[in-house]
Specification:
single chain, 381 residues, alpha/beta, 6-stranded mixed sheet, 29% helix, binds threonylcarbamoyladenylate, binds magnesium ion
Length: 381
């Protein structure tokens, strides 16, 4: 469905950590005024992007079918991918569900407000556009003062996916939202960069045994304290098969525990790309040093995986803006929030290399031992 262009207003929240987005169209407001303006627009059927602690969300009132349709259209989101309902507190989440899980109470008490989405049997009356026709609903209480103030001002749940074009990396700044959705949404509340940087953990509590559908900032290790034996095994989720988190340049991912082997392979791949007439860019942790001739973004430190989560989508978008043809990067240790980072990298990657351990001093790196793996295609999601 085509969407008519609209004037996208940006309000920069004063006193938040906002660097400014340099468009010249931003209006500065206090948080309360920005939230009031957003709530009015939403009530009138508008689409509003707002910060959460994870990434920016694109909110629509579920009671507005035309707005929901517009939300799917502007994102280019397939109709079979359900939306998360954002609520101000646990009581509001509970009202959206039929059959509140006993575990949900304990998890909510421990992790909400916070980056955990729980999938539960849906209460009657939730629009099929939100649930994608499933019998379940995803609910979460975000831990961001602007998101919470907006939900309180509305007094009703807000359906909100990430505020990016489907398939693209999620937005962690208002500028990212503007890059994807200028002229398509009514308002963006610029509350500065989102602190976590990857999307919420999605936990399915609607099945007899809980299942982790999407790793996030609430870690598998934390959840295992409540749900012993919970596994992160790949599980069919509604949008499985769609591509996600992809930059415009193709992403090449090198996995391996030995950073010397990974470093050597990245060097080789960069040289091979240049020899092929391509312009490679590198997304590297600080530990990989600065001896790289190519455009390079340092996206965090392996020693502090929170920085990798916070820097991932920013880095991918920066390299796209630098106009590189391909982005070379490396995996991270899949523990803690690293599991979420690795999950996004694997989904974003066009090609994955897993160089086998080879002698460090063989001089030739791991070229002979590498195992390239080409990703199968899929439609954009
Ligand atoms: O951190 C976040 O979760 C952000 C912020 C804005 O809250 N939102 C976000 O929404 O990432 P979205 O739509 O980009 O991703 C929601 C994920 C999708 O993978 C969707 O399939 C899954 O949650 N999901 C939503 N409802 C579901 C349901 N009823 N059953 C299974 N999965 C569901
Ligand atoms: Mg998304």
């Amino acid at each position: 469905m085509a969407s008519e262009a609209v004037a996208t207003r940006v309000v920069q929240v004063v006193a938040a950590d906002a660097a400014g987005i340099g468009t010249g169209v931003a209006v500065r407001m206090r948080a309360a005024a920005a939230v009031a303006a957003a709530a009015d627009l939403l009530a009138a059927g508008g689409l509003v992007a707002f910060p959460t602690e994870t990434v920016y969300g694109l909110g629509a009132l579920p009671s507005r079918p035309a707005t929901l349709a517009r939300l799917f259209a502007v994102k280019g989101r397939p109709a079979d991918n359900p939306l998360i309902m954002h609520v101000a507190d646990t009581a509001a989440a509970r009202r959206l569900t039929a059959g509140w899980h006993p575990l949900a109470d304990r998890l909510a008490a421990h992790f909400w407000p916070g980056p955990l989405t729980m999938i539960l049997p849906a209460a009657p009356g939730i629009p099929a556009a939100v649930t994608a026709g499933l019998s379940t609903v995803g609910v979460r209480v975000p831990a961001h003062p602007i998101a919470l103030a907006l939900l309180q001002a509305l007094g009703e749940p807000l359906a909100a996916p990430s505020a990016n074009r489907s398939g693209r990396p999620s937005p962690t700044t208002a500028a990212h939202v503007l890059a994807d959705l200028a002229g398509l949404v009514d308002l963006i509340i610029d509350g500065g960069p989102t602190p976590v940087g990857v999307e919420s953990t999605v936990l399915d509590l609607s099945t007899p045994a809980p299942v982790l559908l999407r790793p996030g900032a609430v870690t598998l290790e934390q959840l295992c304290q409540f749900i012993p034996g919970l596994s992160a095994a790949a599980t069919p989720s509604p949008a499985v098969g769609y591509r996600h988190y992809r930059p415009a340049a193709s992403l090449v991912l090198v996995l391996g525990e030995d950073t010397v082997v990974v470093h050597n392979m990245l060097k080789e791949l960069a040289a091979a790309a240049r020899a092929d007439g391509k312009r490679p860019g590198l997304l590297l942790a600080a530990e990989f040093g600065d001896d790289w001739p190519e455009p390079r973004v340092v996206w965090g430190s392996l020693a502090n995986p929170d920085t990798l989560a916070a820097g991932l989508y920013v880095g991918l978008r920066q390299l796209d803006e630098a106009g590189v043809d391909l982005i070379l990067t490396h995996g991270v240790e899949p523990i803690g929030i690293g599991l979420a980072v690795q999950n996004r990298l694997l989904q974003a990657a066009e090609r994955v290399y897993r160089p086998r351990f080879s002698k460090r001093n063989d001089g030739a790196g791991s070229a002979a031992a590498r195992v390239p793996h080409r990703r199968k295609g899929g439609s954009m999601g």
